[in-house]
Write a structure and sequence with these properties.
By secondary structure, this protein is α+β, with helices and mostly antiparallel strands. It has twelve helices and four strands. Strands 2-3-1-4 form a four-stranded antiparallel sheet. The longest helix has about 60 residues.
Amino acid sequence: MTDTAPVESDRIKAWRAERARVAEEQKAQRVLVAAQARAQKQKEEKAARDARAALLIPDDAALTEARRGLVRARDRRRRLLMAQFAAVVLVPMAACLFYLLEVATPLYEARAVVAIATPEDRPAPEAALFQTERSDRLEQAFMAQEYLGSAALMQALEAEFALAETLSSEKMDPLRRLRDLPVLGLSARDRFRHFVAGSVDIQTGLLSLHVRLPDAGLAEMVAQAVLVRTAAHVDSLAAALSDRRVAVLEAALTDAQTGLETAQADLVRLRAESREADPRERLAAQQSAIRDLEEEAQRLDNAIESARLDGIGGRRDTLAKIALRDGMLREIVQRRADLAGAGEGPSLSETLVRHETAELRVEMARDALTAARAGLTEARGAAALSRRMVQVVVPPSAPTLATYPRIPTILAVTLLICLTAFSLTRVLLPNGFRPET
């Protein structure tokens, strides 16, 4: 027993030592494998990084090809941009310039400046240039301006110069040709205002006339004719208003004359019926007689009363006075009855009222006739002073150079429109149309 116990103990120690050695060997093996795996992973990562670096940093051939691709893309975008610029700007500008130089009809402008004055105004042109115009004169200028674009003037010029036929013929370019444009809502009369137009300076009241035609001499003649017709039209407008006023006053004068004749006839008929030329004289005489009779009756009454007081009231002379007084009182009553109209005929007072009424009507009719004559005289004088005259400040003359089309102005406006459209297309279209720098 004692011999086997140490042996077993040694065997166990040996086994434990062996187990510890094997464990160390396995641990070392595992550490080695892990180290090898890390090394392999690092190697693979390095290889991957090297591969990505190789892709990011191409060689010279790849760089050259990439550079050529960028240049081709930039050139393509630039060509597209130039094509867009040519389509939006250059082509319209070239078409506009070609139309202005080869197709558009040159127009010559005859310009005149006129002032609308009255006989009471100062006739000098300097007065029209520097005088502040009144509102009625400015109104006449605007009326004349409206007449310049009217169908009446257009028809008159057509009858005299065949102007509409000339402006609507093939001699005019398509854009300026005188014709109706239903799509744009423009009639031939609306387009006629481009050839014969007027403008008013609201500060001075001056009217500027513009006549634009393909022929310079024709433009001057038409301008002269337009001035003549405008002067006649303005004068006819003022004369029509004055004539209407004079006609109304003449009718009023005729009515006043008729009223006076009727009132005078009524007065004559009343005098014939009443047989009284002036009832006032008869009334005054009656009133005077009544006053005299009353005074005499009062005097007799005083004498009779004095005789009664003296006790001689029964005497013959006193009785005669009483009889005379009573007769006077009866006469007074009778005369007053005549004034009051107690009989069958009209009273004297009524006759007087009728006479005075008739005379008042005659006087009123005479005053109305006098006022009508004065008003008619004033209206005729005002009509003569209110006539409108077209005073030529700057006469029309034949131009030597064509005024229209105004090529620089039209080209500048067209260029501005095209550049605006080009800018809008660059903003609205994809960015591919913009060249890279």
